[in-house]
Design a protein that fits this description.
This is Acyl-CoA dehydrogenase family protein. By secondary structure, the chain is α+β, with helices and mostly antiparallel strands. It folds into three domains: about 5-105, Butyryl-Coa Dehydrogenase, subunit A, domain 1 (Orthogonal Bundle); about 140-245, Beta Barrel (Butyryl-CoA Dehydrogenase, subunit A, domain 2), CATH 2.40.110; about 260-385, Butyryl-CoA Dehydrogenase, subunit A, domain 3 (Up-down Bundle). It is about 45% helix and about 10% strand. A hairpin with a 2-residue loop joins strand 2 (about 160-165) and strand 3.
């Protein structure tokens, strides 16, 4: 495999850290030149609730990005990245979204596990796992939530037992995005018998393609199956595939959650803005702007979008940010249904074909649940941000 520096675009090496406008122009021109031909039809495809759209083609596109040095921008150069500044990373995600480029398929590996390994992994783990993430050769999924331990992650019951040179994993994970397409899963398992809550958990890297791993798709309200159940029944992974020390998994898992709400959310907000502008155009065509209540809700939605961006640039607490954007997006889906009126209740085609607004309404119900439910986020804000007394624990 070639190194990242072998495939980096010409002219980027040694670029001054304060040349963000030049960097923005560079990615804009590259996307204009490359997001055409065989990739042109991918514009706007994919994303939450639409991960089924042209997945194989989007994977090929992301490998094309990697071959030209546009993956893992913020990683240090010695680990295959480009050492891009925070401002440059924001510029990339915004320009990527503005170009209508397809939703990424390697987000979990690049934005979650990669930074976690950079911060807490051994040099051997970095050498083994970072290069195939950067090249989009190995996709990852996240094994956190379980039945009875979704938002309450510390109630994890999946267990892993050390047997010689391996960990043997038994348990069930649920709501696992992209589990069918992933070659690896990073998961939280209880490795100390009798431990409770945050103690005794370990952060393991487990191969998916092996006996003892079963993936069952979950059919969602949208009729698609982005989420899955994953069953581990004696699945094995090497003893050195534990990130951090055994029993220190909670700290590592929290670090991953912090990376999950990073700079890529600004690109997400560009998508939100595009949805809002499309809804505003729909309201004009439908005559819904004659309704003062609809006008007021649209105005509130726009001001909420502006506040969201300002808060993200200021570095708002991750739990506050997640609460804000998830409820804003859910409310936008509800507003879309009210603007469309009775037509919103009819499927676009047989047997259950949905249009973009129906899919937005249905899938955005999950926004307030995945990546930490609103109830849990409010508790975190109360305890960690406002300093209020902690809730009683069982």
């Amino acid at each position: 495999m070639s190194s990242a520096t072998d495939s980096a675009p010409a002219g980027t090496a040694g670029r001054p850290a304060n040349s963000v406008p030049e960097f923005r122009a560079e990615i804009r021109e590259w996307l204009k030149a490359h997001l055409g031909g065989e990739y042109a039809r991918l514009k706007g495809l994919g994303g939450p609730g639409r991960e089924h759209e042209a997945f194989t083609e989007r994977l090929a596109w992301e490998r094309h990005l990697a071959a030209h040095g546009w993956t893992c921008l913020g990683w240090p150069k010695e680990y295959g990245g480009r050492g891009a500044s925070l401002e440059e990373q924001i510029a990339f995600h915004e320009e990527y979204a503005l170009a209508g480029a397809p939703a990424r398929v390697n987000h979990i590996g690049e934005q979650l596990l990669g930074p976690t390994l950079l911060a807490h992994g051994t040099e051997e783990q970095k050498a083994r796992f970072l290069p195939p993430i950067r090249a989009v050769e190995e996709l990852w999924c996240q094994g956190y939530s379980e039945p009875g331990a979704g938002s309450d992650l510390a109630a994890v019951r999946t267990r892993a037992t050390r047997e010689g040179d391996a960990w043997v994993v038994t348990g069930q994970k649920i709501w696992t995005s992209l589990a069918r397409e992933s070659r690896w899963c990073f998961l939280l398992a209880r490795t100390e018998p009798g431990s409770r809550r945050h103690a005794g958990l370990s952060y393991l890297l487990v191969p998916m393609d092996q006996p003892g791993v079963e993936v069952r798709p979950i059919v969602q309200l949208t009729g698609t199956s982005e989420f899955n159940e994953v069953f581990f029944d004696g699945a094995r992974t090497d003893a050195d595939h534990v990130v951090g020390a055994p029993g220190d998994g909670w700290r590592i898992a929290m670090a991953t959650l912090g990376f999950e709400r990073g700079v890529s959310t600004l690109g997400q907000q560009v998508g939100f803005r595009r949805e809002f502008e499309g809804l505003l155009a729909l309201a004009r065509r439908a005559g819904a702007l004659d309704d003062p209540l609809i006008r007021d809700r649209l105005a509130r939605s726009w001001t909420g979008l502006e506040a969201m961006r300002a808060s993200a640039l200021r570095g708002t607490d991750p739990s506050v940010a997640k609460l804000y954007w998830s409820h804003w997006h859910r409310d936008l889906g509800e507003l879309a249904m009210d603007i469309r009126g009775a037509a919103a209740t009819l499927a676009a085609g047989e047997p259950y074909e949905l249009d973009a607004w129906q899919r937005l309404f249905l899938f955005s119900r999950a926004d307030t649940i995945y990546a930490g439910s609103s109830e849990i986020q409010r508790t975190l804000v109360a305890e960690r941000v406002l300093g209020l007394p902690k809730e009683p624990r069982p």
